[in-house]
Amino acid sequence: MHSSARKGLLVWQIRMVIAAFILLLLSLELLKDLPIYGLVLGILTLALLAFFGLFYIPTYFKRYHFALQRDTILLRTGVFVRRVTVLPYERMIMMTKIETPLMAVFGICAAVITLPGGRLWIAALMQSEATRLSSLAGAEVRHETV
Fold this sequence. Notes:
Oligomer: single chain
Number of helices: 4
Number of domains: 2
Number of strands: 7
Strand content: 25-35%
């Protein structure tokens, strides 16, 4: 697994733990006044945490591969449907670099590359790869901190 994929997986796992903690606290509060709703929310939270935390997100990042090649970007993604994208640098119009405070701690970011026919989402790449990508492509670069 590529280091940006490992770090991306860790960021998503941290996000899931925080969200699950908040939802489980809410379900405990609901148990006092509306026990059936609290129970349903608790069970749904644990089921979603189990599916996404133990299967979907780890599988996504296990199969996630991003590489900057000499004149193209290679991106492999997918859990149920696998996709391989090969994008020549000259097709890039603009790159938007997205970084959350948690991503910054781990030295990764996400990017959205605008193309003539649509957009390409790169879920996790190292800061150095983002800088290299923007210089190789010669596209306009926007930075967003969320």
